[in-house]
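Archive entry. Fields below.
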Amino acid sequence: MSRIIAVFNQAGGVAKTTLTQNLGYHLAQLGHRVLLIDIDPQASLTIFMGLVPREIHQTVHSAIVDEQPLPIHKAIHGMDLAPANISLSTAEMQLVSAYLRDFRLKEAIEPIESGYDFILIDCPPSLGLLSYLSLVAATHVLVPLETHFKAFEGTSELLRTVAKVRSKVNRKLQIAGFVPTKYDSRNSQDTRTLTAITEQLASAGTVFAPIPRSTTFVDASEERMPLAVYEPKHSSVAILKKIAISLQSLK
Ligand SMILES: Nc1ncnc2c1ncn2[C@@H]1O[C@H](COP(=O)(O)OP(=O)(O)OP(=O)(O)O)[C@@H](O)[C@H]1O
Ligand SMILES: [Mg+2]
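PREDICTED_STRUCTURE:
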């Protein structure tokens, strides 16, 4: 059975897209068949993977709104990608009264699911329909949290949303864990926040080792590469790989 992981946090800029791309890369390097799904109209993942969103005609939009097959671009750094572009921003309106709309992404994934060991969904920074469709389609949710005093802002809404999806439409949805990101160990506020994240969220799911703050992540994405391709010896490569190794044991 494939594991379908929604990388989700309604807070913006917490490294959802960065984690989706890099964990996908390491899972592929570990020998797994990996599909990344970009369901964010900002299309950052599509850009990070080297495509030009405005030049793409078939996106996740056509799959969820027009019920077309999920469009898949093959073998980019060892991963496949279902891309997004700005057209997705109209999906929420177009699906307002659509029949069984909650299952549109789940149904789009079903025909291709057996071709992948891991499917990672890069959610937009909102609790809106696109994130909801992702949680309905997912087997697991992975939550990046910026290691910053604002980290807990919205965490209870996030956990409530996951609980709601689990109780209503997707009983099997599990929390794969929390990944503290952009961590600066020299900043006392960051170390306090990391301690608080570890203490307060451990009962909800695994809290993984933090990903340090480093501008090399920005450089790697500008070059459209996973960190391990851009700078194989970077200290965060081993941390990302370790998280990917842990994800292999998700049931
Ligand atoms: N560990 C890190 N250190 C420094 N910068 C980082 C780190 N991880 C990601 N970034 C940078 O932070 C910015 C936001 O990252 P990213 O796009 O992955 O976040 P996001 O949660 O997907 O954002 P959005 O909510 O807009 O979708 C990007 O410029 C990215 O390169
Ligand atoms: Mg993003």
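CURATOR_NOTE: The mean pLDDT is 96.
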